[in-house]
């Protein structure tokens, strides 16, 4: 309750509750976002002291300019083959997302999450890592798996929780796990993977290994306590880890202001921890690649962690269970000043005369057909809801390495009850 | 050895045997731990295997989970069990589920050591017994030793186990067994047979209870400090109780419990933790389900009260000989 004796000589206090600029129905003008020109940000030595990154935490590392030219000190000077590979993986991710989103709408699975507009963040970063570096992703970095050549049909099997699902239907769709592809098991609990990635990197360093770790979280998730503990550990032990923040402006319905963006950048968090911090145009595949390669070299040479804020925009709803038109202007995705990552890389390649619109359209068709064919293969293993795809008793497997008596008892009881009930659980 | 030395010895033995075992936590490195459990380990095994951490329990456990995923066998310490709560998300949502959710691709072979329990004037935040929180979680094992011999053998078994284990060390009996008579001089492990601890490697299997006193009249299920309080109380009252030290709460040694209660027909459950939804409730339910037709009296529970752990009223709260004695008299009334 407010004080019964307010002091007349003091102004009354007021609570600030952040509010996004645009709500449904509002006209969108992103002029205030303030995008620095491409090529402007300096590229420090990978051994630079963590105290020397303050300016880089408040600007944007950008390589591709408005005309699609690669400019400035961060230009990674990739070969046309490499650029085409990156473009293909980004387009494949988009095609995959499109198909799986539709599969959910068709009732073939319970849930899906797209990465529309954020394709560069995962794909370009993965191209800059070594294949055996360990990734601790959140749920929106399926681009890592696609870039590392994880079979699409395996991803779909997981999404369908079908007979082919390596996770035996135990996990919600998109919560992949692919150890052989350096892809850590995804958890529903936000940012828990951050200290885990730091621990993995510390273990690699303690064992004299050469592999590094990379992790990703959204800007909304930086508010979790685990983010703070991970940054503290990473800095204290100079862990060989890359801490990626995907600032896509939205955490479900909450705009980035609720994670602190009104007063600072997310890259600037690094300054206080004593971690090298970079803020990158997340829709610029070359900038993401260059920053990741830089951070990887820093980690590999025992110079410690790097925190990278990828400034991007979540062009789609949070998930298939979300309707963004309820909380933001429908005009936002198209008005986003950093554009579309796939189009920007495509324009760059076309400008180099290494690509053209016809080839791009043909590739899109090829990728759509590829995804469709893989989907057909996956659906041979069943889709969610069409009967049980795993033997009933697998429910109890893997809680512990060896099943203790109480789980064996529960399993036996379940099977006995199901048998007695006469329910057709064996339907496939 | 006292229990601290036994735990120190277990860590030393395992670090020497397995280069993947690492010890981490607040003050565990150079200083050797606020209870001295890790004394000398950093000097012997090096700073990259025994190290101090920032004061962040969620960080300590989160980092340990990542190290476990890499292939190490971390033994993180949480300074007091009362401070394990910031790490609950990492323990419950991550360590406990990692094997299940990844269908065995990743595991979490971590052993979380933490001093627990009361009887030391620790007040609200240096006395708690939160084992019931962890026994409720699928995928973690919960172990509580009551002697130096068991502490070393169980800790070695926990470190070798590929599942995450919560290892609660009753700090009241670090230096000697405690019979609940707080106003008498404290005892020392050197005069207790379980203070005889081999210096080398040995294991006490997880999931196996110990019958520390065979008897015919009543079964007492207990663990940690309470084992010694129960032994002393029964001796004092001349009750021919069968005292079962559970040692591992999950997985529980149900065979030993069942055989004992079917023999005695009576059951008393004793723990320091608060009563409601405490582990005693699970024990009582299991005994009732499995030994119903053998029971000759209602199952009794002597536990901490459903209050935060008090400071000045500690000995009113602590399940000591008086409270245990009254419960035994009640159970044995019609015998």
Give me the secondary-structure topology:
The complex is a heterodimer of chains A (about 425) and B (about 325).
Chain A: H1 80-105, H2 119-128, E1 134-136, H3 142-147, H4 152-160, H5 193-206, E2 213-218, H6 225-236, E3 241-247, E4 250-251, E5 254-255, H7 269-273, E6 276-281, H8 285-300, E7 306-311, H9 332-335, H10 341-351, H11 357-379, H12 405-421
Chain B: H1 3-17, E1 21-25, H2 41-45, E2 50-52, H3 57-70, E3 73-77, H4 88-95, H5 98-101, E4 111-116, H6 131-135, E5 141-143, H7 148-160, E6 165-170, E7 210-213, E8 218-222, H8 225-237, E9 241-245, E10 248-250, H9 254-264, E11 267-274, H10 279-291, E12 300-304, H11 314-317, H12 321-332
Number of domains of chain B: 2
Radius of gyration based on Cα positions of chain B = 19 Å
**Oligomeric grouping of the chains:** heterodimer
Shape of chain B: globular
| Major sheet strand order of chain A | 1-2-3-7-6
Number of strands of chain A: 7
Strand content of chain A: 5-15%
Query: Percentage of helical residues of chain A?
Result: 25-40%
Could you explain the architecture of this structure?
The complex is a heterodimer of chains A (428) and B (335). Chain A has 428 residues and is of the alpha/beta class. Chain A folds into two domains: 50-379, Thiamin diphosphate (ThDP)-binding fold, Pyr/PP domains (Rossmann fold), CATH 3.40.50.970; 392-421. Chain A is 36% helix and 7% strand. Chain A is built from twelve helices and seven strands. Chain A has a five-stranded parallel sheet, sandwiched between helices. A two-stranded antiparallel sheet of chain A has the order 4-5. The relative contact order of chain A is 0.16. With 335 residues, chain B is an alpha/beta fold. Chain B folds into two domains: 3-195, Rossmann fold, CATH 3.40.50; 210-332, 3-Layer(aba) Sandwich (Rossmann fold), CATH 3.40.50. In chain B, α10 links the parallel β11 and β12. The interface between A and B is large, with 48 and 48 residues.
């Amino acid at each position: 309750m407010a004080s019964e004796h307010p002091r007349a000589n003091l102004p009354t206090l007021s609570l600030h509750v952040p509010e996004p600029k645009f709500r449904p129905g509002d006209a969108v003008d992103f002029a205030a976002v303030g995008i620095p020109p491409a090529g402007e940000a300096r590229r420090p030595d990978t051994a630079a002291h963590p105290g020397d990154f303050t300016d880089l935490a408040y600007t944007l590392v950008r390589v591709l300019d408005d005309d699609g030219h690669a400019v400035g000190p961060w230009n990674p000077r990739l070969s046309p083959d490499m650029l085409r590979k990156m473009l293909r993986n980004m387009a494949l991710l988009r095609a995959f997302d499109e198909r799986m989103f539709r599969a959910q709408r068709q009732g073939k699975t319970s849930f899906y999450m797209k990465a529309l507009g954020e394709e560069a963040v995962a794909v370009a970063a993965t191209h800059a890592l070594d294949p055996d570096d360990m990734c601790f992703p959140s749920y929106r970095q399926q681009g890592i798996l696609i870039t590392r050549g994880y079979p699409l049909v395996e991803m779909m099997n997981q999404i369908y929780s079908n007979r082919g699902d390596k996770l035996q239907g135990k996990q919600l769709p998109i919560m992949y796990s692919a150890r052989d592809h350096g892809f850590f098991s995804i958890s529903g609990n936000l940012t828990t993977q951050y200290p885990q990635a730091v621990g993995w990197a510390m273990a690699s360093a303690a064992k004299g290994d050469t592999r590094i770790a990379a992790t990703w979280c959204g800007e909304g998730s930086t508010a979790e306590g685990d983010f703070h503990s991970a940054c503290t550990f990473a800095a204290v032990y100079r862990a060989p880890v890359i801490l990626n923040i995907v600032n896509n402006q939205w955490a479900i319905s909450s705009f980035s202001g609720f994670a602190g963006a009104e007063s600072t950048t997310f890259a600037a968090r690094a300054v206080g921890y004593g971690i090298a911090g970079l803020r990158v145009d997340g829709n610029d595949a070359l900038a993401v690649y260059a920053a990741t390669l830089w951070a990887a070299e820093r980690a590999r040479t025992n110079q410690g962690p790097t925190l990278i804020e990828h400034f991007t925009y979540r062009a789609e709803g949070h998930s298939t269970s979300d309707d963004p038109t309820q909380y933001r202007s429908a005009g936002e995705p198209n008005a986003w000043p950093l554009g579309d990552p796939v189009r920007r890389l495509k324009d760059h390649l076309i400008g180099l005369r290494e690509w053209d619109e016809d080839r791009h359209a043909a590739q899109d068709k090829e990728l759509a057909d590829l995804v469709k064919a893989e989907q057909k293969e996956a659906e041979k293993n069943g889709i969610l809801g069409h009967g049980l795809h795993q033997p009933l008793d697998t429910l109890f497997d893997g809680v512990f390495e060896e099943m203790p008596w109480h789980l064996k008892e529960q399993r036996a009881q379940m099977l006995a009850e199901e048998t007695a009930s006469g329910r057709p659980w064996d339907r496939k | 050895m006292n229990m601290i030395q036994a735990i120190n010895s277990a860590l030393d033995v395992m670090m020497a045997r397995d280069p993947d075992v690492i010890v981490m936590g607040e003050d565990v490195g150079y200083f050797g731990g606020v209870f001295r459990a890790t004394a000398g380990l950093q000097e012997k095994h090096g700073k990259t295997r025994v190290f101090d951490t920032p004061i962040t329990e969620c960080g300590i456990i989160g980092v340990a989970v990542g190290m476990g995923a890499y292939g190490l066998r971390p033994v993180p310490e949480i300074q007091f069990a009362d401070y394990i709560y910031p790490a609950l998300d990492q323990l419950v949502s991550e360590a406990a589920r990692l094997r299940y959710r990844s269908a065995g691709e990743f595991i979490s072979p971590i052993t979380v050591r933490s001093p627990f329990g009361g009887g030391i004037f620790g007040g609200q935040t240096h006395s708690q017994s939160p084992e019931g929180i962890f026994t409720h979680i699928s995928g973690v094992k919960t172990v509580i030793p009551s002697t130096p011999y068991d502490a070393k053998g169980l800790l070695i078994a926990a470190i070798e186990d590929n599942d995450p284990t919560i290892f609660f060390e009753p700090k009241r009996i670090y230096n000697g067994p405690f019979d609940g008579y707080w106003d008498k001089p404290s005892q020392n492990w050197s005069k207790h047979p379980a203070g005889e601890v081999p210096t080398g490697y040995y294991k006490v299997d997880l999931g196996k209870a110990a019958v520390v006193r065979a008897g015919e009249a009543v079964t007492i299920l207990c663990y940690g400090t309470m084992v010694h309080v129960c032994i002393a109380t029964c001796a004092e009252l001349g009750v021919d109780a069968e005292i079962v030290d559970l040692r591992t709460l999950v997985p529980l040694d149900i065979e030993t419990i069942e055989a004992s209660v079917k023999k005695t027909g009576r059951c008393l459950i004793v723990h320091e933790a608060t009563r409601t939804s405490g582990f005693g409730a699970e024990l009582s339910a299991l005994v009732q389900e499995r030994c119903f037709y053998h029971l000759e009296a209602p199952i009794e529970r002597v536990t901490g009260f459903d209050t935060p752990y008090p400071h000045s009223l500690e000995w009113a709260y602590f399940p000591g000989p008086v409270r245990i004695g009254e419960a035994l008299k009640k159970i044995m009334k019609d015998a």
